[in-house]
């Protein structure tokens, strides 16, 4: 008997299999172009199990975004640690964060859930804490760059950096031939200056 | 006999009525939550007419985005003219553009079509020229602020400003209590410094 609720051969739990399959399918066919049937087949679970584990499709997209934000924050922590060990400069740190934003992996899903948040406050309420986790990471970066400024000034820097990192994905969304090296380097130099520092720092 | 192809009492052509109705309905219920039937009723046209005037729903969203970009570029031209007449400062000009981005009118639809562009290159190809029109406006603003720099440096400024203005909408998407005055003022001051200028300019 098929027991879809159990871990698969690789030890992945059904919830993770659904998230992974949804990531692939939503990325290729879009959120609304993926039926629950197709998702169940791809994740080797039953349709009922999807409904037991997730409230609705928004809930699955939010789970993917949460996982992505977690991954990105994990990468940022490694970057911070490298800055603290003086292995990389602040410009290099900001460039690394900009690179991730430009690579635009799962950017489509992020913009989709942002669109959902614009018209549905319950989606917005669930997205907000995830954005806050990412914002905390950026705030840490800005505070390392400018330990001398107060909370209000720091908040202004964080607003601009957040807007930039969220907005940079539009480049890769509309054009397949963005030079990620050049664009992330430029972004880092301009943002460093926005922070009131010299790009050589 | 009902003649839905004709202009209505206010003189609006069917295409404009469909765009206006779609803007309202997509904004309230989302792109995928709006059926063609409902759209036809709201626009006082037949379903057939929608299909004759637009290839598909993406085509309607692109038409809305095109109209919005046109409106925004129109507003930017007024802002440039005011800067050239020395009626407002460069900081005030950038703050005005940031305010529009933060107000986030139709931001949901923009993020939705950006999500579509991430997975569908034909959507990306149609979105690109609209983004380019907006980019030209921002480039004009950056060139007025820094007439002394070359194209490469100008391009770096424009990238950051574009990313910022596109990304700023996330604030209003996830939170209904953003202080637009404070955030746009901060954005303008930080961006002016990013451009290598003093906020008093």
From TrEMBL, chains A, B:
InterPro entries per UniProt: Homeodomain-like_sf, HTH-type_TetR-like_transc_reg, HTH_TetR
Top-rank taxon: Bacteria
UniProt keyword terms in alphabetical order: DNA-binding, Transcription, Transcription regulation
Keyword Oxidoreductase included in the entry's annotation: no
Annotated ranges, domain HTH tetR-type: 12-72
DNA-binding region, residue intervals: 35-54
One Pfam family linked to the record: TetR_N
Protein known as: Transcriptional regulator, TetR family
């Amino acid at each position: 008997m098929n027991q879809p609720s159990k871990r698969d051969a690789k030890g992945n739990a059904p919830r993770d299999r659904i998230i992974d399959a949804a990531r692939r399918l939503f990325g290729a066919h879009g959120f609304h172009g993926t039926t629950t049937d197709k998702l169940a087949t791809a994740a080797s679970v039953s349709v009922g199990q999807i409904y037991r584990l997730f409230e609705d499709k928004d809930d699955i997209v939010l789970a993917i975004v949460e996982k992505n934000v977690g991954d990105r924050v994990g990468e940022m922590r490694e970057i911070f640690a490298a800055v603290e060990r003086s292995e990389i400069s602040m410009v290099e740190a900001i460039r690394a964060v900009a690179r991730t934003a430009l690579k635009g992996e799962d950017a489509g899903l992020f913009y989709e859930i942002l669109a959902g948040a614009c018209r549905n406050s319950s989606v917005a309420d669930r997205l907000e804490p995830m954005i806050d986790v990412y914002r905390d990471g950026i705030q840490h970066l800005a505070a390392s760059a400018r330990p001398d400024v107060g909370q209000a000034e720091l908040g202004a820097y964080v607003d601009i950096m957040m807007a930039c990192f969220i907005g940079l994905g539009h480049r890769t969304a509309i054009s397949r031939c963005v030079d990620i090296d050049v664009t992330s380097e430029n972004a880092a130099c301009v943002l460093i200056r926005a922070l009131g520092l010299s790009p050589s720092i």
